[in-house]
Design a protein that fits this description.
Number of helices: 1
CATH architecture: Sandwich
Largest sheet: 6 strands, antiparallel
Shape: globular
CATH superfamily: Jelly Rolls
Number of strands: 8
Helix content: 10-25%
Structural class: mainly beta
Amino acid sequence: MRIAKDNVDVKMEIPGAVIRQQTEFGDATGLGKISGEYFTLSAGVDTTPLFMGLEGDLCQCPHWGFVLCGELTTTDAEGTEETVVANDLFYWPPGHNVKVNVDAEIVMFSPQHPHSLVINHMIEKVSG
């Protein structure tokens, strides 16, 4: 799920403040501690080889985030692609790969334990 900032419902607007809220934006029930993450990614980065060996060869951790700049495309197990760009809020459910189309910076919030396992798996892949 992705949504551009301008498409997030304005719930309150007063001089000096605009509050937008997208409800039903993923479910964090039972996921434990959450980590806040800041990723800086270059165009061409593709997680496909890094996720080989994980269940389904995909990241099985959900992520909620915001694209500060750039463009990324996720692909799920069925091959469905979704592209997010600057100022988009996004939710990536479990079962995805990511390709960076344009240099990007993103902020994500993820269940700490499962995403740490994925990050450690990627570290092992690049370490050989």
